[in-house]
Design goal:
380 residues, mainly alpha, two-stranded antiparallel sheet, 7 helices, 2 strands, rod-shaped, coiled coil, Trichocyst matrix protein, signal
Length: 380
């Protein structure tokens, strides 16, 4: 019974070692080492030399791993420093962007407020300009009306002066003054000529705006001259001349009043326009100042916006740089893990072979014998 149990245990151990051999052979290194050991054993290579080869190989793996660990640690420290520096630069840029945005948040409302104030001033200026234009137009109408009035008065005055001339240029006897009266004598034909002249003047004056009253008076004189031409004596002639002179005086006084009224309107207009122009100058000054302030604010906004755009571009570039660097560091860490895992696996293979050589040489020889019997070409 004990013998059977021992055989079972030996079989289990051999089965376990066979599984270990299969696992070792699953890697290129393991299969190469097994083949090398098998050839060395079949050729009578001293076992100590085989052990030394495996020990040297294990030491090389350990040394390589230490060197790789140190290099990886140094590289990852550089990565950490680089990423820390890049993150700090990004934080500084983000802070700068926040500061620039705060400046814009202050400047833009002020600029918009100034623009609103300018528009309000421009509307007020437009209303004032409308008042100035209307006042100027009205004043021009008054000036044109006065000029028309002056021309009409001049016309009436010329009619009266011409009538007076007809009398004085056609006296049949020398005129002389006696008790303040002018002694003249004209013929009926002259009186008729005077009546016709004044009748024509009265008709034209009746169509005018400002001298219609004088036109009626001239018409009355024309009628009087017409009725008295058959009695063209000295007394009647003197009365007609006096009426003409009186009407001329009244015309002159009326025109003097009209001129005074025109002068008053001119002074009032000039005084009013002076006030309007002062207001206009104030509006122009305010608009000019607001325009300059708006331009100054806009220049600052443009400069700040340009700086912010530059900062945003730098943030984008710096973020990409950081992400690229992080990718490089992560890729290096992954490659390191892959190398470590592969090296650990190879080292474990060497360690397993050393263990087999130390404790299961018989199983190894049997395993090699089985491979040779199976016609393994690698062992020929």
């Amino acid at each position: 019974m004990k013998t059977i149990l021992l055989l079972v245990l030996v079989a289990c151990v051999f089965t376990t070692n066979t599984a270990l051999f299969d696992r070792i052979e699953s890697s290129d290194l393991g299969r190469t080492l097994l083949n090398t050991i098998a050839i060395q054993m079949t050729t009578g290579e001293p076992l100590e030399r085989i052990f030394q080869t495996l020990y040297d190989l294990e030491d090389r793996y350990i040394a390589d791993q230490k060197e790789d660990d140190a290099n990886n640690q140094a590289f990852q420290q550089v990565c950490d420093a680089d990423l820390s520096g890049l993150n700090q630069e990004l934080a500084n840029l983000e802070q700068r962007n926040t500061e620039l945005q705060a400046v814009l948040d202050d400047l833009i409302p002020i600029r918009d407020q100034k623009i609103g104030q300018k528009k309000a001033k421009e509307l007020q200026k437009a209303e004032l300009q409308k008042v100035i234009d209307e006042t100027t137009a009205k004043r021009q109408e008054q000036a044109d009306d006065f000029e028309a009035q002056r021309q009409e008065y001049t016309f009436v005055s010329s009619v009266l002066a011409e009538a007076r001339r007809l009398f004085t240029d056609n006296l049949q006897a020398p005129s002389f003054l006696q008790k303040g009266e002018e002694r003249v004598h004209v013929t009926p034909q002259i009186m008729a000529q005077v009546a016709s002249h004044m009748s024509q003047g009265a008709h034209k004056a009746s169509t005018m705006k400002h001298v219609r009253t004088f036109g009626k008076a001239i018409k009355l004189l024309a009628n009087l001259a017409n009725r008295t031409q058959q009695f063209a004596n000295q007394e009647l002639t003197g009365r007609v001349i006096k009426l003409i002179d009186d009407l001329q005086n009244q015309l002159s006084q009326a025109f003097d009043l009209a001129r005074k009224a025109e002068d008053d309107r001119t002074r009032a207009f000039q005084a009013y326009m002076s006030l309007l122009n002062k207001d206009m100058n104030k509006y122009n000054s305010s608009i000019a100042n607001l325009t300059a302030e708006i331009q100054s604010l806009q220049d600052r906004i443009d400069a700040t916006t340009s700086s912010q755009n530059d900062v945003l571009q730098r943030i984008q570039a710096k973020t990409q740089q950081r992400d690229d660097r992080r990718g490089e560091c992560q890729e290096a860490a992954y490659d390191y893990q892959q190398r470590r895992a592969a090296r650990d696996k190879d080292r474990q293979t060497v360690s397993d072979l050393i263990g087999i050589l130390n404790s299961n040489m018989r199983d190894l020889k049997e395993y090699i014998a089985l491979r040779v019997a199976a016609g393994d070409k690698d062992l020929e």
